[in-house]
Automatic annotation (TrEMBL):
It holds the Pfam family Polysacc_synt_3. Keywords: Cell membrane, Membrane, Transmembrane, Transmembrane helix. The chain crosses the membrane at residues 20-42, 48-67, 88-109, 121-140, 152-172, 178-196, 297-321, 327-349, 361-380, 386-407, 419-440, 452-473. It comes from Acinetobacter bouvetii. It is found in: Cell membrane. The keyword Transmembrane helix applies. Belongs to the polysaccharide synthase family. This is Teichuronic acid biosynthesis protein TuaB. It is a multi-pass membrane protein. InterPro entries: Poly_Biosynth_Transport.
Length: 488
């Protein structure tokens, strides 16, 4: 369990893991897109809104499920079996407690939204706390050791089972229950596969030396997640409370579509970046080079995609959701403004976590939560669109202050954030504006064909703009290396 791995070994494992996770994420994207397309045609906006009401609350309870212990395991330089075993039992105990607590609170949650039918759904979803807690340390160890093949298989199979269960039950007319049961069955499958893929076998529970440091680190991560919860879920709570399940259903669909490309690109890269950055924390030059490379890669993957989706929002929403979802379009466009920078900006947190600066992480969580919460409270007056534009404004307003705070005292500076993303920012915006104006002159009866042509035009303009920008051609020629995620 020692973290004393040489740079060549890190590089080899990270390249292999990077290619694996990014490739496997393509399968996950297919599953998620299939979920959006099929379930949006089998279920109503109200069905999605009711589940969004529940998950907005259970997401808060879920913060305590792991208590930051998985992150602590990944970050720690040296780790012993007995420490992992202690954390496994601690995770399991927390999961059982949260399941029972959520079941006890289910009547109050249903009463809060004035929808009694939500109580049994909350009770069912509460089971996922104990299910996920049991597999948390197995998943963390696989990520720490960059042994990602078993974890990837578990995640993909779990997602597929979730989708198939939800589709089957939705087709049979179970409504929002299909989403709840899909989540539970998928969680069971994922946890079982984590157990099978990990070499860790639990033994009798016992408190051992060194556990306190892991718990303290985890508590700071948990405190940040508690604060982070409010700006990740306060929007859903406010919309559900003020505007009801229909508007929340539209908002939740828009948010899911916006987050799909972000999470699909960010999560596999972060899965590699955190353990690698943690190993490089004593080598500032390698640390800085690695960060800049993953920032460049993530920017080139996420920014053009988000720009294209925003300027083609009407067609994308129709193709993805079908008729009756036009109300999603303006919400999606406004959320996409935040999504444009969100994937790359999320790398800030990895810097503090990889360097063990969890207390500093918490302090920023307080500031960030206050800013975003105020924005949501002000914006909810104008409905889902008001929430979305408020979120965009506050995200860009706090970007530079957050970089200054996060990078102070680390091998990085704010300029190390802006330089890697300069070319993708300019080229993505130019490609979006030019392709949008060009496509206004195209009259194509087929929405699918119009979208395909728009994508082709966007891509050609994007490449041409990149080539014309300083350093752009060099970036394109080196993209194969960047795609491996890991050049130091």
């Amino acid at each position: 369990m020692s973290a004393n791995i040489d740079l060549k070994d890190i590089k080899k494992k990270a390249i292999k893991g990077g290619v694996l996770t990014i490739s496997s994420r393509l399968l996950t994207i297919v599953i998620q897109i299939s979920s959006i397309i099929v379930l949006s045609r089998l279920l109503s906006p109200t069905d999605f809104g009711l589940i969004a009401m529940v998950t907005a609350i259970t997401a808060f309870m879920g913060i305590f499920r792991d208590m930051g212990l998985s992150t602590a395991v990944i970050q720690k330089k040296d780790l012993e079996y007995k420490q992992i075993n202690t954390l496994f039992w601690l995770n399991t105990g927390i999961g059982v407690f949260l399941t029972l607590l959520t079941i006890a609170l289910s009547p109050f949650i249903a009463s809060f939204y004035n929808h009694p039918e939500l109580q049994p759904v909350v009770m069912l979803l509460a089971i996922t706390f104990v299910i996920a807690s049991i597999g948390a340390q197995h998943a963390a160890l696989l990520q720490r050791e960059l042994n990602l093949k078993p974890k990837v298989i578990a995640d993909i199979v779990g997602a597929a089972i979730t989708l198939l269960t939800s589709i089957g039950m939705a087709y049979l007319g179970y409504g929002f229950w299909s989403l709840a049961w899909g989540t539970v069955i998928g969680a069971i499958a994922t946890t079982c596969l984590y157990f099978r893929g990990s070499s860790f076998t639990p033994s009798k529970p016992k408190i051992v030396e060194g556990t306190r440091d892991l718990i303290n680190f985890g508590l700071n991560v948990t405190l940040f997640e508690i604060l982070n919860y409010f700006h990740r879920n306060l929007d859903n709570i406010l919309i559900g409370r003020v505007w009801g399940p229909l508007i929340l259903g539209l908002y939740s669909r828009a948010y899911q579509l916006m987050m799909l490309p972000i999470s699909s690109l960010r999560e596999p890269i972060n899965a590699i970046a955190l353990p690698v950055l943690s190993r490089l924390q004593d080598d500032p030059d390698s640390y800085k080079a690695y960060y800049k490379n993953i920032a460049t890669l993530l920017a080139f993957l996420s920014m053009p995609l988000m720009a294209f989706l925003v300027v083609n929002a009407e067609n994308i929403i129709y193709l993805a959701l079908g008729k009756g979802w036009s109300g999603v379009v303006p919400i999606f466009v406004l959320l996409g403004i935040s999504g444009f920078i969100q994937a790359v900006a999320s790398l800030r947190g990895l810097v503090l976590l990889s360097l063990g600066l969890s207390k500093k992480y918490v302090i920023w969580g307080i500031v960030n939560t206050l800013c975003v919460s105020v924005a949501f409270i002000l914006g909810v007056k104008w409905g889902a669109e008001g929430i979305a534009i408020s979120y965009a404004i506050v995200n860009y307003a706090i970007l530079y202050p957050s970089l200054w705070y996060f990078f102070k005292g680390t091998p990085l500076s704010p300029i190390d954030f802006f330089i890697p993303i300069l070319v993708p920012v300019v080229s993505s915006i130019m490609a979006a504006l030019l392709s949008f104006n060009i496509m206004l002159n195209f009259i194509v009866n087929s929405i699918l064909l119009h979208t395909i042509i728009s994508a082709f035009v966007f891509f050609i303009i994007l490449i041409l703009v990149i080539i014309m920008l300083p350093g752009g051609l060099k970036t394109i020629l080196g993209f194969k290396k960047l795609a491996k995620v890991i050049k130091t």
